[in-house]
Amino acid sequence: MQLWQSTSRFVLSVVFGTALAHSAAVENKPHHITFSDSAHSKELNIGAQLLDSVVVTNLTNAKTHYDNSMSVRFFANGKFTDAFQFDARVKINTDYTNRYINFNYYNPDEGLPYNKQSENKRTWDLFGANVSYDLKPAKLLAGFDFIEWGPARRNHVILRGERNFYRPWQDSSSRIPDAAPTPYFGYQFTLGPIEYTQYAAKIYEKKNFGKYFHAHRLNLNLPKDITFGISETALYGSTIEPAGSNPNPDSDSTEREFEWAYAIPFIPFVFQEHLQGDQDNISLAFDLSVKTIPNWEFYGELMWDDMKSLTSMFDDSWWGNKWAATLGVARDNIVLGPTTLGWMFEYTRIEPWVYTHHKGRAYTYASYAQSLGSDLGPNSQELHTEVSATYEFLKATLFLGAVAKDTAFGGHINDIHTPESAMDKKFLNEKTTLRYKELGFNLAVTPWDWFSFRCSYTRFFGDYEGYRAYAVGSVQW
Question: Got the DSSP string for 382-412?
């Protein structure tokens, strides 16, 4: 079918398939319509998805609440040339709840913005987009999107990207649970098994106040299917606390502009920061994935936040010895007759004060009131294991987890350590730590390419008692 005639001849075709969609609720990419020229050197794929979900939550000392969310999503991706590729998606949500919804004034410290329509109804939208241009061996990157680093299957401690998990202490009708995208530009260099990636981004803490984020990563693809990564991040911004409210001597109100030196490739941030006055939030991270044994993966992530040396990880006498780690093991593709099984186990530990900064919220590891790293936040840990079984269009997952979260000072990302604060740290103080276990299952059903359904049930035991039931259905094309 000829659509128009210019220097190229374009044809229209309908393509069906499944892949990973940018949705935490449903893992099926919509059907899409493809426009391309006869040589397929230019291509545009468009699609849409309609979802409707319901959640029932009943926890100790809280009213049973019901939440309904209807969402319309649109997708577009393709290429202008083989080297110039793009991807974009948007979702528009309408939420109903039997809880009261607070007003939202579009301040980033309130979380993602929404429009309050009534006491029990709100609307909101979210989008992501990115482009890449491959110049070989360099690739240019730009977007308003999510950045995810590390091999962890559940809790990234470095950059979690779009991942979100239900945490009872974060449950609120006045908080959008989705992660926040960020505008960025960057580049990637590839030389054989070596890959270097760098991003410069703007993140959000308060309207009209600048806050900036830089990250670079060296990835080594080693023999025996081993991948090792080392990365750094840098954070800084204009002070948002009132003048004189923070007693730390280097926290006077300042206005920060974008530091172009951080955007130069191959310069270690820890050295660059010293030349710029030793005033920013710098972290160093390592990650490792070992897949030497077929269908097995052993992995780990380690983030150092202001650490002085490796041995200081075990020194609790100084609050600034901040680190976070995730260790995991997984077994995939266990074939049992017509069924394929999978299993994983993961442990995450985040020390007190990780992701925070003594100069205030302009330097915290957060955007739109959400951690860029694990959403567990500082002073927490989680043990999580799950077993999944896939049979034709059915996938069932059984999971078990144990979570501990300290609510004391140093356990929230916005806490500010001052000269008057204790100089030591206490991991998971018994008196102030909330502990609970969760046991549940997920069931995903995709009988046809155009229809998907997923439900889950989680039972909580411990300091949080009760259950959470969730169901979502979607049609896509």
Answer: EEEEEEEEEETTEEEEEEEEEEEEE-STTSS
Name the strand (E) or helix (H) holding 280: none
pLDDT in tens, 35-54: 888 888 899 999 999 999 99
Q: Number of structural domains, the chain? A: 1
Amino acid at 181: P
Phi, psi of 425 (to 5 degrees): -135, 155
In the chain the first and final C-alpha atoms are separated, in Å, by 20
Contact assessment for residue 201 and residue 183, using Cβ atoms and an 8 Å cutoff: yes
3 bridge partner residues: none
387: β partners: 343, 398
φ/ψ of 203, rounded to 5, equals -120, 175
Alpha-carbon distances of 383 from 152, 245, 417, 442, rounded to whole Å? 13, 38, 28, 18
Give the torsion sign (CA, 368, 374, 376, 380).
negative
For the chain, what is the radius of gyration of the CA atoms?
23
Q: Which residues of 29-44 are buried (b: 16+ CB within 10 A; e: fewer)?
A: bbbbebebeeeeebbb
Distance CA(64)–CA(56), nearest Å, equals: 7
Q: Residue 22 is part of a domain; what is its CATH number?
A: 2.40.160
Which domain does 271 fall in, by range? Answer: 2-476
pLDDT in tens, 441-469: 999 999 999 999 999 999 999 999 999 99
